[in-house]
Design a protein that fits this description.
276 residues; alpha+beta; Phosphatase 2c, domain 1; six-stranded antiparallel β-sheet; 28% helix; 29% strand
Length: 276
């Protein structure tokens, strides 16, 4: 596979950055993940980190070098992350388990598929137009889906009806597969980006110029719009080029997931990697 990937995590006006971001790949398959640890519950940064690590390690075991069923992998890996959060809470005797939202994407062959839980999003942009976007598991998104005359005038966009680490089984939506074309761009992000930047600006910004410049501009816009109380902003973008025939390749998965439980304040990671 040939593509470029760039990721940024920036602390906003919060006490700490509870977002996590990373990716792992073989020559035939790639995994990309953003998780947003939930405030109002303990150890959100641990929740995001555990979910990321669980999914990444499963990918590194199963991508040899391709996943047999990418959509099933995403569903099962995210559920495994949820179970790890519950186990963590039980072992520590916690009354309230750490919780996180998550969005994950697999690129394999010429196709992309993805899954999410909560309000971390994926955008797929082609020819400067939005092709796909995940739908948040929030009451605000449910209201927006109603006819205009039936919408409630009052709702809190921050209230989610599912996440990883909650007592019940999480809702996980799986999307794709979508056949990719050269020049397609995918964006995974926390609500710190889309919460202060309009969808039209995200699509236009993602499609404009080099990938690293586009992402840095969007993140700076989100931080500026959010002001002193801005949420943390975490993004990962992929610029798709082409799929190669790697059927005989057995290269093990190479991770760019931090196994330590912290992302430093400020710029957590800003790397542009052509993978070929």
């Amino acid at each position: 596979m040939r593509f470029s990937v760039y990721q940024i995590s920036r602390k906003g006006g919060r006490e700490k950055n509870e977002d996590r971001v990373g990716y792992s790949y073989t020559r035939a398959s790639g995994l990309f993940v953003v998780a947003d640890g939930m405030g109002g519950h303990p150890e959100g940064e641990v929740a995001a980190q555990l979910a990321l690590q669980t999914i990444a390690r499963r990918f590194q075991r199963e991508a040899a070098p391709r996943l047999r069923e990418p959509q099933a992998f995403l569903q099962e890996a995210i559920i495994a992350g949820h179970h790890q959060l519950q186990i963590y809470g039980e072992r520590k005797g916690m009354n309230d388990t750490p919780r996180t939202t998550i969005v994950a994407c697999v690129l394999q062959g010429n196709q992309a598929c993805w899954a999410h839980c909560g309000d971390s999003r994926l955008y797929l942009v082609r020819n400067q137009a939005l092709l796909k976007r995940t739908r948040d598991h929030s009451f605000a998104e449910l209201e927006r889906a109603k006819p205009v005359g039936e919408r409630s005038e009052r709702f809190n966009r921050n209230v989610l009806f599912t996440c990883l680490g909650s007592p019940g089984m999480p809702v996980i939506d799986v999307g794709g597969p979508v056949e990719l074309q050269p020049g397609d761009r995918l964006l995974l992000c926390s609500d710190g980006l889309w919460g202060t930047v309009r969808e039209e600006e995200i699509v236009e910004g993602l499609a404009r110029g080099p990938l690293d410049d586009a992402l840095q501009t969007l993140v700076q816009l989100a931080l500026r719009n959010g002001g002193a109380r801005c949420d943390n902003v975490t993004t990962l973008a992929v610029d798709w080029e082409a799929a190669d025939d790697d059927a005989g390749d057995t290269t093990p998965a190479r991770p760019d997931f931090d196994d330590d439980a912290t992302i430093p304040h400020g710029l957590a990671s800003a790397q542009r990697h052509p993978l070929s």
